[in-house]
Write a structure and sequence with these properties.
The chain is α+β, with helices and mostly antiparallel strands. The chain is built from 5 helices and 8 strands; from the N terminus they run ααβββββαββαβα. It has one domain. The chain is 34% helix and 27% strand. Strands 1, 2, 3, 4, 5, 6, 7 and 8 form an 8-stranded mixed sheet that branches. Helix 1 crosses helix 2 and helix 3 runs parallel beside helix 4.
């Protein structure tokens, strides 16, 4: 499979990932390093580990986008296009919160720590939900609940934001863009 095939597959299988990745352009944030997963048009997974030892036993999750500042993790972004159950949202939050390091061959397997203050942004695609669903309200409540328990002991995630995008995605994408600009300034 060549790069064009991967690009087409990403666009059809993960359209929201691609839209979010398009908001977060390298040119907009020149003092940050932006790492994008394959789903977001990048060329790698973005694994997070619980220890400085890189291995399957210490890898807790992969995120969709990662933003580094001064060689430390500043922002983690997780995008969910299909499975938006509370257990999925909370599980991704907790796995990220329990992780302390990003280690990847693209960084010469150097250990990159979480910064002193890390923001986790989760973006949920609600565009395919049935009308009058309680999922949006559930997500709003989940965001409040997660914000109430952070920071978690020994985790550097001290900021959490959950965006729920629906049919008016342009408005939601604009809100994400504004939030990122504030978080990165």
């Amino acid at each position: 499979m060549d790069n064009k095939d991967v690009e087409r597959k990403t666009e059809t299988n993960h359209p929201l990932h691609k839209q979010i990745a398009n908001i977060i352009q390298y040119e907009k944030y020149p003092s940050y390093k932006i790492i994008k997963s394959r789903e977001c048009g990048g060329d790698q997974n973005i694994p997070l580990f619980c220890s400085k030892e890189k291995g399957n036993g210490t890898e807790y999750c992969n995120v969709d986008l990662l933003i580094l500042k001064d060689d430390k993790v500043k922002i983690l972004i997780e995008i969910e296009e299909s499975d938006i159950k509370p257990i999925q949202i909370c599980g991704k939050f907790l796995a990220s919160a329990l992780s302390s390091y990003y280690i990847h061959k693209s960084e010469n397997n150097e250990i990159i720590e979480m910064g002193d203050s890390v923001t986790l942004i989760q973006i949920i695609d609600a565009s395919k939900l049935k009308e009058n669903t309680s999922k949006v309200e559930q997500c709003i409540n989940l965001e409040k609940s997660i914000q109430n328990i952070i920071p978690i002991k020994e985790s550097n995630i001290d900021e959490y934001k959950l965006f729920v995008l629906n049919d008016s995605q342009d408005i939601g994408l604009n809100e994400i863009d504004i939030y990122l600009k504030e978080a990165l300034n």
